[in-house]
Model the fold of this input.
Amino acid sequence: MPRKQKQYHYIYKTTCLITNKFYIGMHSTDNLKDGYMGSGKLLWYSINKYGKINHQIEILEHLPNRQSLIDREREIVNEELISELLCMNLSKGGMCGVNFNKGYITAKDKNGTGFYVSKDDPRLFNGELFGATKGYKHSEEAKRRMKEMHKYNNHQVGQKNNQYGTCWIYNLDLQCNKKIKKEEIEGYLQNGWIRGMKVEFNPNNPIRNKIINFCSCGKIITHGAKRCDRCFRLSRRKIEWPDVDTLKQMIEQSNYTQVAKELGVSDNAIRKHLKSARVVKWETQ
Done:
């Protein structure tokens, strides 16, 4: 199904009133007051930092249809504009990146001209057209600007680094690697673990190169998990439950409703807790 044509098509310019940096883009809409300010990555870094109230949008010109809008943006947002220090555009205009119609993609020819085409377009198979991002490389200027932005935002620095406060250890007997907190390393070193990561173990071992994760209780957990099921349930508790025998005595002396009021939970929560406690007790026997 072809894209539904909007009523208005225009080129806009969004400017940060604090830094004077600007972003130029295109927009098609049926409502000129829809509040759209742009979708550029650096633009939204600026909006998130300074707020929408400190950004002003102005319409530069109107176009009759979507295709003429794409062509006009390609003319305005060129390499010369992108090279300006105050410009927040990262790529040339006319390349929207993604067509949201199912079965359509953004492609380009050998001259870099962008097109919206069907995935079954024969020009994609004979080499006349290819994916919009194929062969794309950031310019040295773009790389420099991204480095400056990462440095300014302290990207992956200190506590923002996903490896912060952790280290890798491995065990030759278990033939596995493990990532732990640095404050826990002494205990592991005393139990035969070695600091660092061993890339290759015995090739005959079926768990060669496999990273095994452990819960704080010592149970093996799947990749990406932080806790086992039981520890996860315990971490979600909103109150400190008395032991099961004490809880039973409290219920026998009064009733579920009265005990629930004392603990600040519902009577069904008490029943579920007793049921869960019996299951855990049975599993550990």
